[in-house]
# Entry
Amino acid sequence: MIDLKIFEVWFITGSQSLYGEETLKKVAEHSQEIVKGIDTSGKIPVRVVFKPIVKSSEEIYATIQEANAAENVIGIITWMHTFSPAKMWIRGLSILQKPMLHLHTQYNRDIPWSSIDMDFMNLNQSAHGDREFGFMVSRMRKNRKVVVGHWQDTEVLDQISTWSRAAAAWYDWQGAKFARFGDNMRYVAVTDGDKVEAELKFGFSVNTYGIGDLVGVINAVSDEAINELIDEYQSSYTMDADLNKGGARHSSVYEAARIELGMRSFLKEGGFKGFSDTFEDLHGMAQLPGIASQRLMADGYGFAGEGDWKTAALVRAFKVMGSGLPGGNAFMEDYTYHFDPNNALVLGSHMLEVDASLANGKAALEVHPLGIGGKADPARLVFNVAGGEALNASIIDMGNRFRLLINEVKAVDPQNDLPNLPVARVLWKPYPDMKTGCAAWIYAGGAHHTAYSQNLTAEHLQDFADIAGIEFVRIGKDTKLDQFRNELRWNDAAYK
# Structure
């Protein structure tokens, strides 16, 4: 699991010297109490850190400059306890390089009706102090999330938590490296894209590495290490007897373990956070990586098949955002449909590589022919995915911009046995319904590869898209196809 507690969000409170020392002392006390309450609430996955009250342009600039440079600081939360003239914020906001959440709250929840006086009013001015600040942020066209409500409210804490997870995933992308073993699947359009523009926009780099380089590492793996990993397989998954040591088909499992160890070594040595491969380029490999890709994803690596580097990066972002939450995140593909008018379903799967963090129960390690790629029968984990609320997401290169598209779905428990389908699989109903959900996805140019999540929401992805400064499009329970198509047209006009 990725440890989000190594990350910090700085809480910056705005005021001004006009109010005198006693008022400013109270501002600092209140701010510290709020920070302590948020940080110890058990709701926020990162640390929330109090910073001294800022009262001038110089103090604001210095604090934001420090936040930009501070390692493991993933964003800032701003709050105006009193009135903080917004011209003071121009220099600081102009250099801000990290995500911002504007918390529109106040120290007290209720108005003290019987005792309120002008001293109280002068101290507790966020109702208009935050509006002054908000104008300047809007005037400067700075992306941020605005959260409104009392700082102890569960809903407010949940919104801060959601944003902090998105900010952590964004921080994780900065300087990240993704490896492509082989090129994009030939002639496929949506899985390819502009890697230069992606690095400019998202901060991660994507480069291709020859299969021969990987095979050299795979072939150097020791027999001792392979046998140790196979012991782990046997204790973690159900396996037929002929796959165990000494069994007739054990060699397939042995080669799969060798591939996993080699890939793991290559990725760790190169400092990569994710990878893609393709069945069209396996020269020197015994089989297409199945269980290797599944287990590497389970350990936090991003992955997508056929050279789909955008989805590999998105899976990694999902892994970071969802760390510590119940449920999993994985590479997925809309594979085939069940068009029963009374029970329309999508069957999601891939040839081999769906992460077992989604598994409902213990996965089975199995070996079967693949029928594509021309290599030996690959080992893979086979399992059903549990029902429940989920979402699919796709990053698409639209030529002049990147679009993050999501479809909220309802996964359902398997209704029939699938004895002849030896892959991981999940059944879901797209929202708002099968026909609308699928048509909207196609109108939006959504890919056939996705990142699938059991623990993230549209709000996480909206926050992430806002931080990245990219288009966000949602297909959900309230989607109407005519309105959705108009939204796409308006977005096209806005991004020209």
In short: The longest strand covers residues 402-412. The CA atoms of residues 218 and 259 lie 6 Å apart. The longest helix spans residues 250-270.
